[in-house]
Every structure is written in structure tokens, then in C-alpha cells.
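Internal ticket #5521
Category: modeling
Description: The requester needs a full-assembly model to guide mutagenesis choices. All entity lines are attached below as received. Residue total reported by intake: 962.
Assigned to: D.W.
Attached entities:
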Amino acid sequence: MAADPNELRDDVLSGFQLSQQLERIWRTPSGLLGALMSVDHKVIGRRYIVTAFVFLLLGGVLAMLMRIQLAGPEQTFLSADKYNQIFTMHGSTMMFLFAVPVMEAFAVYLVPLMVGTRNIAFPRLNAFSYWMFLFGGCFLWISFALNVGPDVGWFAYVPLSSLQFTPTKRPDVWAQMITFTEVAALAVSVEIVVTVFKLRAPGMTLDRIPLFVWAMLVTSFLVMFAMPSIMVASTSLILDRLVNTRFYDPSSGGHPLLWQHLFWFFGHPEVYIIFIPGTGMVSAILATFARRPVIGYPVVILSLIATGFLSFGLWVHHMFVTGLPQLGAGLFTASSMLIAVPSGLQIFCWLATLWDGRPVYRTPLLFVLGFIVIFVLGGLSGVMVASVPIDTQVHDTYFVVAHFHYVLIGGAVFPLIGAVYYWFPKITGRMLGERLGRWNFWLAFIGFNVAFFPMHILGLIGMPRRVYTYPAGMDWAHLNLLASGGSFIFALSFALLLINVFYSARKGALAGDNPWNASTLEWATSSPPPPQNFDRIPVVKHRDPLWADSESLPVVAGLSAERREVLLTSLAEAEPQTREASPKPSIWPLLAAIATTIFFIGSIFTPWAVLWGTPPMAIALIGWFWPTGSKEDEE
Amino acid sequence: MLCTTWPLAACAGRQSALDPQGLQSDQIRSTLFIFLAVSAIVWIAVVLVLAVGMLRRKRATDRPLDLHQVFEQRADRLILGLGIATTVIVLGLSFVSYAGQRTVFAKDEHALTLKIIGHQWWWEVRYEADSPHQSFVTANEIRIPTGQPIKVELESADVIHSFWVPSLTGKMDLITGQKNELQFTAKNAGVYRGQCAEFCGLQHAHMAFDVIALPPDEFGRWRDWQNQSAQSPADQLGRQGEALFRARGCALCHNISGTLAGGQLGPDLTHVGSRTSIAAGTLPNTPATRGAWISDPQHIKPGNLMPKMPLQSDELIAILHYLEQLK
């Protein structure tokens, strides 16, 4: 790039001038149109987080409806049809519209701040990703409101989900919702990987990257390798249903088990796509509140990477009762259990950190402690489920329901709520109330265990999953009532969180830049951060920069002060390489998302939508990339 | 006929992996208990370390980066050691699991073979012998002799189901276009409830069955009985019922051996009067429940394939009287 000698650079401006100048360049335009055009990772990250939590609430309400129905035997609160829609919607919402997106949302908000850059890589793609997620989620829920909610399970096994056995639009809605969230998730993953690889602050070598960022990097790779499998699976399903292909039809040489292989080749890594970010949050919170760095930084990173690899080698444990060859199934027992090793190593690192640290018992740390107690139990029941003989009994029973709620709520939601308490001050500038926070934690911890522990026993005494009712003579009534009671306590804890968030966002104590005295770069800027994140890009000389240089961070100078620009650094050593323009706000990502939405939804009603649906998308993309002659476009 | 052999309460049937009544379920429970013991020890150890770690006296400095090198190195070594221990434990458990698996899935050449075909939402049970005279079909109820290995061949007529009798053994799926099999041996006589374990659509919750394990000689008598065609109705009302069974469309879906009713879509009713439940374990088999079922099947099990037939009350009485005699 040819240097323009007249260009205004940040080194000629004083602190306040620079701040104002950068804010003018980087801010999101005002007004509704401006909001729709935003490409600021913080604005989009915030929207992403709030939207994902709205879906959590919706999915949670569905869970409560199911618990009311199952509180006693032979209840008629919900019809079979409603119940089947509701459990499908609950699973699909929690997995595709809450758990994965909320983790990505936190990454979208935090990763650029944590690596010390001004915006995420590919900011317009980021905006597009959010709109696709929002439209996909709305599509599913509006369909549900219109009584076209999917009712074949979040796993949509063929042949039940085939046209022959479900001749409604419900499975199409499910499959196409998957397509929306796939597109959104893949887009974010590409952004995160490039942000971590190329936009890190100078000096943030690979062994100085915060553990949360490492976790999101591994997660992003998992998404990129796992999602294509479900994309193939769900697209084939739609093709079978719409244009009579026969991928899954045994009478024409297809096979229903093909679906299960493809689905679980995605579905098991999916669990780690949700859990690994949770471990990143745990590492971040633990270091801050144990008042020392996490012991075994390289062990934690290698564990994350090992978990990522292993997660692709154990999908078959979801299929132990489909009649597989016995030796093969036995090998998948071993591979499934082996994932306990990297998970265990991380737990040991955290325990050692707490052992040596000087813990400050604030709400985020309480949630991390709750996480350890619950997740270890879920991991151990996972070891049981991995055993073929045990699995033949507990598969598709409430034991498995208990197991994966222990793993997913314990392993991901507890850290997530801890993360909300931890990063809320950074995002809003105000602290969440500590007293309510403690109530929130204890209600969540007790409610969760009362709700889900009895389900282990229910499964062992014979209660299968996905039944809308059960007979009175089965000895399941008491434990179900207990579980329902616990679930309401658990729900109450989320109500407290909501109250806390709404109250504290207005009335909470002001946070300041670094209220927890934490060590990573997101705490080096104001709360909430300005549009440009940092006035000057920090130089990182230590894994815990704010603990090592507690007074002031060294910075680089020389970036443009008249247009949006980020600094690219080398992959391993993070040495400065070049200045790179960063895109300005644009309405085209939204228009492209609308065009794609019309195409996706249209195509479940007529294959011709593939024909007439693509030109609007092409137009939107041409608009998106149309050169405007500005410097941002030229380079 | 035979449920009277057992106290009526037992007809509810046991359905628990913790109450094994078969060789296989017994083995699985043993494996489960080993895993449970190891898990409990590990969990308690983790929580203890966590608790002690929180309670113990802390180092004096409050500067986060003032780390004690000796402690760091020791911690690293300890973590590595624990990682190796974890590996050893899970590999050990893998072998325990595989040993259990081999026992559970061991095959016996001389097993008594049954074929079970899953339907939305009921179970077709075929006893297939070498000669057609020894073969018969029943539904939602499987009678087996105790002490003898049973092989069930599992197929599906529509979507995927899963055959699960936890008191006897673990489950196995019935997959469209595939033949699976499962072997088990009941140790004790009794009624063991089973239920579909793979979500199979609207009425997945109402797809249960009973496995009734009988002493071998009693099983032999039952088998001979089932081999026979249906009894002809003994009275005028019964004969009227038989005629109505055909005239009102029942026979289009239901088979009754030895009569003109030869439908294949629904459960075989040749000896329906001798079964313990109707509608796949949904209701006990009594004249009252049969009446309620026939007069409106969609009320009791919405979405099932049996339509509500327009019957006069005297017609219903005749049909019920006829079915009652199909012992």
C-alpha cells in the first residue's frame, strides 16, 4: 500500500483529540437506518446476546409447560400433538437459537476487545450473520405460533420426518431453520478465526492469547468442520421431501441410518461447540477471582484442541442401539470415554488454581464453583452413557435427559451466567447487583439439582424420553413431581437474573474500566468501550497484560486517524504486518439477509424458489461489494 | 386365561433396569454398579479437593503474578499425573464395559426365535416355527418360557421404534429396511412391562407391551392354545357379533384366524380375549375398556389408525360379546 504523506495519523493527535476523531470515524450512524446499518462488533454482539437470551426465555417457558404436563401421571394439560411440538421446539431453540448463538455472541463482543483491535474481521458478514440468526429464529417461532412448529424431535430422525409419515410443513420448517443458523454460525466462525489469527495486538504471541479467545478459536474450527455435515443432512432431507430424492428411503437404496450418522457427526461436536466456550469463560472468571493466572495454560490449550479433535470421533455412541457391529461399538466406547481425559485435565488445572489462589467470592466465581460440582457429575454420567451395555438401558430415557442437562446447563449455562455477571459491567458500564446475584446463584444451583438429579433415577426405573404422558401405576409420579418443583425454582433464578439486569442497567453502581481488577485487554478500555474500542492499539508483552503493566500499557502509533483502519499482525508472533481498511456501515448485509430469507422460506413451498429466489440475493451481494471509490474499498 | 395365574397387581408389570429379572439385565446392572462406584469416588474426591482448596490458608501476597515457582512445577507434575490416572481409569472402564457387552450380546444357537414388527403405535409379535401349523401371530404381548434364551428379530413396518424391556435386557431399535436382533433370557416367571424407547410420532407414549415369562410347561400349553384357530361363537349374540365384525369394517384391518376376517393392518385378534391389555398397553383388557375403545378409539389414543366406526349400541354389544369369546 502506498503511504499517503498527507494522511492524518494517530501519532500527531493528542489523547482527547484522537479519542474524538476516532469516535467520529467508528461510531454507528444515528437513527433507525443507522442502527440497521451498524457493523460495530459491540452493537451486533449486544443484539446477538439479547436475542439469544430471548430465545432462552422462550425455550425455558416451553420447558415449564412440559414439566407441568409431566408433574403427574396421565395429565391432559397438553395434547400429544402440542407436547411433541413443544419438546421439539425446546430442543431446537435451546441448541440452535440459544446455546450456540449466545456463545458466538459473547465471542463477537469480546474477542476483538480481548485481542486488542478495533473491530471484528469481516464486520459486514458479522451483521449479515446476526440478521440471518434473527430471521431464522423468528421463522421457527412464527411457524410454531401458526401451529406449524416442528414435531419430530430436534434430531428429526427419518423416516418419521419423511413426507410419508409427516406430510405437513413442520419438518421443512425445522430443516430450514437449521440452514439459517448454519449460515449464521459459519459466518461468525470465519470472523473469529481471522480476527484471532490476523488482528491481534502486536506482541500477543500464540502463548499470550487469553484462554477464552483460545476456546472460541477451537470452537470456531469445530463449527466449520461440524456444520457442513448437518447442512448435507438437512438439505438432503428437504430434497427428499420436496423433490422426491431418495437419500433416506430404504426402498430405493437409501438408508435411515445415513441420517443418523450425518446428524450425529455434527451433533456430538455440537455439544463441544457449546461446552468449550463455557470452559473459556470459566478460565477467564477463575483467573480474575482466584487472583492468579490459571495454572497449566499450555495444558488447558492442548486440552481444548484435543477435545476438539476427539469430539469428531465419538458420534457413534448416539447409535449404540441401532444394531452396529459389537467390536466397532466397543471401540467407540473407548473413544467416547477418552474425552474425559482432556476435560479432566482442565478441571485439575482449575482446581489447582483455586487451591493456590486467594478466591474472591463474588457472583461470577460462585457460578464457576457451581459449574465444577455439576459438570463433573455430568461428565461422569457421560462415562456411563459411553459404555455400550449401560447405554442399552439408559439410551433414550430420562437418565440421558439428566446427563446432558448436567453437561450443558452445568458445563455451559452456569459459566454463561457467571460470564453475564462478569462482563455486564464492561458491556453496560454498570455492575449487576451482588445480593440478587447470590440469590440467583443459590436458586439456580438448588433448583437445577432438584429438577434434574431425580431424572437419573427415573431413567433407570424405566421412564423413556419424549413421552407426553405416563401411566399412573409406574412409580414415576413422585420423582416427576419433585423434578417439576425443582424446575420452577430453577426458572425463578432466571427471573431474578432478568430483574437484576433490568434494574442494574439503569441503577447499578458505575463500573469503571476494570472493576474486577482483571488482567485481559478488554478491561483496558472504558466501560462500555468507545466505538473504536481503543484509542491506541496496545502492545502486549505478557500473558496477563493488565497485571504485568498495571499502570499503563505500551501502545503502537501510526494508524490512520481519518478512516477506519485496523492493524494486521503475523499469525504466530503477532508482529505488525500492515494497516488494513475496515468496512464502513452498510445496509446491504440486511438486504442480503432479507433476500436470503425469502429464498430459504420460499424454497420449502416450491422448488422454483431456488430459481426466482437467487437474483435478489445476487443483487444484494452486488450492492454489498459495489466499489464506492472510497479508500476502504480500494484496498 | 393365563393372567389369572398371576395376581392381578403383577399385571402392571415391572419396568426397571435396577430390578433385573433376566441374565442380560443382571449383567448390565453389575457393569452399571462398577461405573457408579468409580464415578462416586471421583466426584467426591473432586468436591473434597475443591472444598479444601477453598478453605485452606492462602498465600500472603495479593499480587496475582507473584507466583511460587516450586508450587507451579509441583502443580504441573501433579496435573500430568492425574491426567495419566484418568486415562488409566477410562481405559480400565472401557475393558469392563466391553466384557459386559460381550456377555450381554452373546448369542445362543438354540434360542427360541420370535419376530417383532413395530407399527405406529403397536407391536406385532410373530411366533414362526418350521411348520405353518406351529406359527401364529399376536400383538402387544410376548409370552416366553423362563430359563430359555429368546431371540427376537426386530423389524419396522413404518418408522424407527425401539424394543425395550428394562427388567430383562437393554433396548434395540427396529429400523426401517434393516433387520436387528436381540437375545435375552428371563430368569424368573413374571410380567415385565416394555415400552417403545425411540420417538415414533404422535402416540409414542402409548406404545407399551408386556413380556410374560412362564414356566416352560405352562408356556408350551399357551403356545398350543395360540396355534388354534379362533373359537366359533357359542351363542346367537356371538354369531351376530361375528357377522357385524365383518359387516362394519373391523375385518378389513384385523385378522381372526379360522374366520373370514383377514385384515392385516391392525393387530391380530384371534385370541384377543386372553390378552392382558389393549391398545398397546394403554388400557387393561376388560369388557368395559374394550367397549370404550371401540366406541371411540380417537378419544383414548388420538391419532391412532383405528377410526371411530358408527355403531348402534346393540351392534357394539354384539361385537363385544363376540370378542369376549376369543380367548
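Resolution: model delivered.
Comment from assignee: Chain B is about 35% helix and 20% strand.
Ticket closed.
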